[in-house]
Specification:
This protein is mostly helical. It is about 85% helix and about 0% strand.
Length: about 130
């Protein structure tokens, strides 16, 4: 194979590779958009919020309650309970920005309660 043929071969291989990447891009975009469309309906469902709240309340009660038994500090449990209450209250709001904003505030308060719980476990004055 001479130099001209080698260059032609190289350009053809690059063009085939680029065509293959284009095909992968088109298929991946179609699949991703279809998946996001299907997931959007599921994730936006009110049932998902109720199940998520149920799981958060169960896990929160267990983790925060265990922390109180371990270190004896009530503040983390109280803060976490407030966050769970805000999350539960957000289910009563109309589906949209207000519900999302209240849920996020509740999640942040709950996360603060869990952070305080972790700090209480590491605190030198806590019960062991």
């Amino acid at each position: 194979m001479n130099s001209s043929q080698a260059q032609s071969y190289l350009w053809d291989r690059l063009a085939i590779g680029l065509s293959g990447l284009c095909l992968v891009h088109c298929i991946a975009t179609t699949v991703l958009l279809a998946a996001m469309s299907a997931a959007g309906g599921l994730i936006g469902s009110h049932l998902v919020h109720e199940v998520g709240l149920f799981l958060a309340m169960g896990l929160g009660a267990f983790a925060l309650g265990r922390g109180v038994l371990e270190h004896g500090f009530m503040l983390p449990s109280a803060v976490g309970g407030l966050g769970l209450g805000v999350m539960a209250g957000s289910l009563q709001l109309s589906h949209g920005f207000e519900e999302s904003a209240a849920t996020m505030v509740g999640v942040l308060i709950l996360a603060l309660g869990h952070d305080l719980n972790q700090r209480g476990t590491r605190h030198p004055f806590g019960r062991r």
